[in-house]
Give the backbone structure.
Amino acid sequence: MPAVADRLRAALGDAAVSTADTDLDARSHDTWPVATVWAKLGRHPHRPDVVVRARGVDDVVTTLRIAAESGVPVTTWGLGSSVTGQPLPVAGGVVLDLSGHVSTPDLDEVDRTVRVASGVRGGDLEAWLRERGYTLNHSPQSLHRSTVGGWIATRATGQFSSRYGGIEDLVVGYQVVLADGTIADLGQRPRAAMGPDLKELFIGSEGTLGVVTEVTLKVYALAEHRIVEAFALPDVPAGLDAMRAITQSGLRPFLVRFYDRDEAAHAVPDSPVASPVLFLGHEGLTDVATAEHAAATAVVEAVGGTSMGAPPVTAWLDRRYDFSTIERRLAEPGGYAETVEVANLWSRLGPMYTDLKEQLAPLADEVLGHFSHVYEQGSSLYMILLGRAPDDAAALARLEEIWERAMKVVVAHDGEVSHHHGGGLARQPWVRQSLGNGYPVLRRLKDGLDPGHLLNPGKLGFPAGRSGA
């Protein structure tokens, strides 16, 4: 690796390349709770040999070409906000840090698109658009901690996806650099029938097939009117019935979040609740939003829902980017916290939730559940676990057990092991089981686009072995 670091310095300049311990250690932990506990224990099991801070597309091309010629793996890094270990360099080599690859947004108000460099922080872009009367309508909890390129790489979705969709629905096109340094621009205008939609190939590929360097996204005018309301529901089956009926009736709420009784106490902290709670919201043209909300309210009331008014939802909207509950627990000696998000069809969702709740209950002090990101056929499900162990080593063991048990349950119910946080290291053992006989298709794409298996090895079921020195 010293020879490769020297080549990179000669090509990119000393300021762009680092082998300092502080920089290498900083890129060996993301915000996956397992990695957080590793850091507390002073462990760095996935540490790069060199960090490259890219300042533009040319730096990305140069880095990938040098790495390909040297047989050295490259793992792309955005802001390190992944919660499943995607950017951790399991085979060492180069970490390609794109957080400095930023640009002034290029807004097209006629076509309603915005184009930016992939290192732009989501919260910065959203603020820039709002000053001009627009919004992305993409609102992951990590909005202010993640990049637009990271959204593509992890197939991210946001809290308003029930109306606006995930990143795959919001991205118009993007630029990607392949393993050999080739640049490709992928997208459609606005739809095409010229073969497969190549834009889909790299969405969710976690940097294993190429490096995203520029993104063009849809933008929306800020909504004319918004209505939000919380409802108490009799039980979980009633809430799931309401969510399914609303979605399958063609209504398009921008917000649908349904908390089981345990998580409802956290979702509505200012007023004691003894039942599950549904957050519901509609927006758009005033007359349309008002009519849709009235129709959705009738569905909720038909299954026994009673209104709690707007304040619980407006309070949540004000704090929805807050990670402090999990961060505080992880900061405690022996503290642990984990979020496992999965998905399933409506017909299997309730039984999977019940099984997860029962199987995970012995592993934490609190096991919370909520459903969001609804579709005509099903919904995502979050399981949030909070606990305390005797020490950090015991907390690490408990986190590993949580993942093992949760994934077994989801696979047993034929569910999706990841809805939007991707696979990373957390789900690496379950990729092939999840994709089944579709996995060889992914493997052939990898072999064709990255024959040396140098891009982010050890993710999406690909081996972690190092191809070069």
In short: The domain at 225-319 is CATH 3.30.70.3450 (Alpha-Beta Plaits). Residues 392-412 form the longest helix (21 residues). The mean pLDDT is 96. The radius of gyration is 22 Å.
